[in-house]
DNA sequence: TTAATTCCGACTAATTGACTAAGGTATCAC
DNA sequence: GTGATACCTTAGTCAATTAGTCGGAATTAA
């Protein structure tokens, strides 16, 4: 029952971008330096954030990344899902998989517990906005 | 953000024990057969449940496992923690580890989010009792 | 005794996680 | 244009975890 390190780092990095909001693009090297996260690892995380539209990148000299919208509008849940994909506490909740292991589907009693768990996790993560992390 | 298969199977197996509550010990072979879970894997899960006091074992012929208390008193959270250990959504929340990676500790802002997440997960899991899964 | 069953510990194959390395491509200041 | 800066992509590695296997020892009802 763990989030990945990518998520942990991703949230820290996004918090740092929130601090520098509207102060121009921030290079990953700066984030790497200050948050003590491997530059290469950050370069692996940020494409995910960009594809989800949470950040924008500016290339070239003095380039870097910046939030594409105000910190007040970005939920921690957005970051988690961007980096790690949808929250699925157990396998039988991931739709795409051809897991017929759960042979019941409809009337599975334990399934309801997992569904409720998933929803509550999303609730908690969606209840916190980026600006709350940096003040 | 996943629970392990051990937890998923453990809850299903415990639900089956709840159905057979007060009907004598149930051998793992029966559970394996009906729930389509590898017998050897079940034998790996049940020692954890026994050590946590959730089930009792009867050795020898016609032995098996049985709940050590009524289904109404056993929480899904008890099962999850017995099989998987304490819930720690991110590394910096696990006490025993010598992870000084999180150099802030006290005033870490993101930490509060993870703590809240952990608490809510426990809340949801502790809100469901075994008898609710089998009726 | 014998068969059924729990218990115990080591072993393994496959997957995932957490990075590291290297090279390529785009952009901008000068 | 040139070189520095920064993004982008792919691949590889190393350790831990997962989901089991396997074999055997202890226990007990019949």
Radius of gyration of chain A: 17 Å
Structural class of chain A: mainly alpha
Task: Give the overall shape of chain A.
Answer: elongated
State the domain count of chain A: 1
CATH H-tier superfamily of chain A: Winged helix-like DNA-binding domain superfamily/Winged helix DNA-binding domain
Numbering strands along the chain, what is their spatial order in the largest sheet of chain A? 1-2
Query: Any idea what the CATH architecture of chain A is?
Result: Orthogonal Bundle
- Which residue ranges of chain A are poorly predicted, with pLDDT under 50 across at least 5 consecutive positions? 96-101
* N-to-C span of chain A: 29 Å
What is the quaternary state of this protein?
homodimer
Strand content of chain A: 5-15%
The most extensive contact between chains is: A-B, 35 and 35 residues
What is the ordering of alpha helices and beta strands of chain A?
HHHEEHHH
* Tally of helical runs of chain A: 6
Please tell me the overall pLDDT of chain A. Answer: 85
| Helical coverage of chain A, percent range | 40-55%
Describe the biggest sheet of chain A? 2 strands, antiparallel
Tell me the number of strands of chain A.
Answer: 2
State the name of the first-level CATH class of chain A. Mainly Alpha
CATH third-level topology of chain A: Arc Repressor Mutant, subunit A
């Amino acid at each position: 029952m763990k989030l990945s390190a990518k998520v942990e780092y991703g949230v820290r990095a996004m918090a740092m971008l929130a601090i520098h909001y509207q102060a121009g693009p921030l290079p990953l090297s700066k984030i790497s330096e200050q948050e003590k996260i491997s530059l290469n690892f950050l370069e692996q995380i940020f494409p995910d954030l960009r594809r989800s539209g949470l950040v924008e990148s500016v290339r070239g000299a003095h380039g870097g990344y910046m939030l594409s919208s105000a910190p007040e509008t970005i939920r921690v849940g957005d970051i988690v899902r961007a980096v790690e994909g949808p929250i699925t506490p157990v396998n039988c909740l991931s739709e795409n998989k051809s897991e017929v292991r759960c042979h019941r589907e409809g009337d599975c009693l334990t399934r309801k517990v997992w569904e409720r768990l998933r929803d509550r996790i999303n609730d908690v993560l969606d209840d916190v906005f980026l600006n709350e992390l940096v003040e």
